[in-house]
Design goal:
Layout: H1 3-21, E1 30-34, H2 40-48, E2 53-56, H3 59-68, E3 75-78, H4 87-93, E4 96-100, H5 103-112, E5 120-125, H6 142-150, E6 155-161, H7 170-187, E7 194-196, H8 203-208, E8 213-216, H9 218-221
Parallel strand pairs: 1-2, 1-8, 2-3, 3-4, 4-5, 5-6, 6-7
Helix pairs in contact: 4-5
The structure holds pyridoxal-5'-phosphate.
Length: about 220
């Protein structure tokens, strides 16, 4: 077995174990394979092993891989920072966008989503660690924003994404996810069913606190 397929199996086991440990329903956590900087050939190998959801951070890089992999039935997720001159390509070529960090970006994605495609699934990126450098909305802005974004016709608000500041204890890793999960539940919007929480280093904490999509690069493809 290749290293990659071994890692994929280990990761599925780790996710299943966390679902059991933290009393989450079986298969409630989806693995998003973060393939940024990795070649199309590795994505093809992952696809052959059953992986269907892939996350990319850079538009140009993603488009060339999408071209190479046109024959594959892949669900593409955009997870990187969004510059306004890239919204058109993102609206056309992705199924999901996790990193919507302004109302302006949400409006552009809705306007630029081609009419023949289903609405673009989006998550609002929430800055839960209060770091000045990280993009995203603040928790207190969330309620008003969800109201505004929900009215946009060609995007579908599915939930939230967060990238907390790295911290090493499990309890510290849980805390920001817990706060964001509770804030979303308080909005009482059943269509917001997606919690894009957790990367290679805080996967278990994210699952403990309600992640429905974990975004995994390093633990799956190795170091970048
Ligand atoms: C790169 C990246 C990941 C994957 O991180 P790993 O630590 O390699 O698992 C997840 N989410 C976002 C937004 C990323 O940019």
């Amino acid at each position: 077995m290749t290293t990659f397929i071994n890692r994929l199996k280990q990761l599925h086991t780790r996710i299943q174990t966390a679902e059991i440990t933290y009393h989450r329903p079986a298969n409630s956590v989806q693995l998003l394979a973060v393939s940024k900087t990795k070649p199309a050939a590795i994505i093809a190998e992952a696809y052959q092993a059953g992986q269907r959801h892939f996350g990319e951070n850079y538009v140009q890089e993603a488009l060339s891989k999408q071209q190479a992999l046109g024959a594959f039935d892949i669900t593409w997720h955009f997870i990187g920072p969004i510059q306004s001159n890239k919204t058109k390509a993102i609206a056309r070529h992705f199924d999901w966008v996790h990193s919507v960090d302004s109302l302006k970006t949400a409006r552009r994605l809705s306007e630029q989503r081609p009419a023949h495609l289903t609405p673009l699934n989006i998550c609002l990126q929430v800055n839960i660690s209060d770091e000045a450098s990280k993009s995203g909305f603040r928790l207190h802005e969330l309620a008003a924003l969800c109201e505004q974004v929900s009215t946009l016709p060609n995007i579908k608000l599915r939930g939230v994404m967060a990238i907390p500041a790295p911290c090493h204890s499990f309890e510290q890793q849980c805390q920001p996810y817990k706060a964001l999960y509770q804030a979303v539940k308080m909005l009482n919007k059943p269509e917001m069913d997606t919690f894009s929480f957790g990367m290679s280093d805080d996967l278990d904490a994210a699952i403990a606190e309600g992640a429905t999509i974990v975004r995994i690069g390093t633990a799956l493809f190795g170091a970048r």
